């Protein structure tokens, strides 16, 4: 999960904070003219996203209503939203709470003409078993994890096509090393960055076995029993052992990784496509591409995250206006304007970035092909034991454990998470 995503599982590009207003907003009230003020709670890290405020201003101008943007410190966001929801006051629009068991108690099902504009696969991915969609997709792009690479570095190393097998990928990394550039940059200090390799590998596992998430959730299969698991992690450990990664894997940061690939000091990183923005910021002229992490069997599957869903509180006195606001923000003209300012891959079939970078264009091509899977953390009912998994990755890349022990640590962390969640079979 991206470092700024907190537990709400929504991206920084979803919304924008324009003022450090206090978090003590009052209930929605209507003015004497019948217009209302909608309170929209959001994490403070979502500030400065181009294009958002202009669309908010346009809706306010057209309707006469007001959107009160209430930024909340990221670390406290979920707890403060939950407090407002429990008090049934002080919030009309919010993000997160996707795993709530009784969604109807805190949020309204979303409706609008945008449903038919969603790509069929994405529509299916966000529709719950009861046939409802619990939240309105935001205008920002959807994301996927995989290999983000510097096309110029690869070209100078004599690499003309992207790899489709682990053996081909390793051969390419060796070519980059021979050319005098660090082949693969892993940022282990931030921890969450290492889990992007896990997400990419898990997508291949899920593509090979669509029932894998349910098997893991019911403890019917162990991690080290998943076909391809051992080969995938032996490859990763081997890259570190052979000097195909940066020497400071355990102390390198996410920012260092995006700067390194932007400036051509490394050939590739394994991360989410949200990193493309940071790379472009470090070097707008960087020639960047994206491909899927090869699966152990030579087959790769795109793991595409659900679009970020924004919710209208069940108790909102301005529920109709709040839903109208969210629908307006993703109507084709507004969604296109937003994506033009923040190039990415839209959840809507009638919205595509007009200035797509190489990486965005590569992801768009994969999305258009269809056949993607949801990431494990969006399929599983068990909260992911991220801290334990990060520690296992650090031990493996630090060459303190082998892949067999890494598999044992993964399974132990999963067992503990399943027990804590009270999942059947644990």
TrEMBL record:
Short name of one Pfam family: SBP_bac_1
Keyword annotations of the record: Signal, Transport
Transmembrane segments: none
Domain of life from the UniProt record: Bacteria
Subcellular location(s) of the protein: Cell envelope
First and last residue of the signal peptide: 1-22
Function: Part of a binding-protein-dependent transport system for a sugar.
Family indicated by similarity: Belongs to the bacterial solute-binding protein 1 family.
Annotated protein name in UniProt: Probable sugar-binding periplasmic protein
Species annotation: Streptomyces yanii
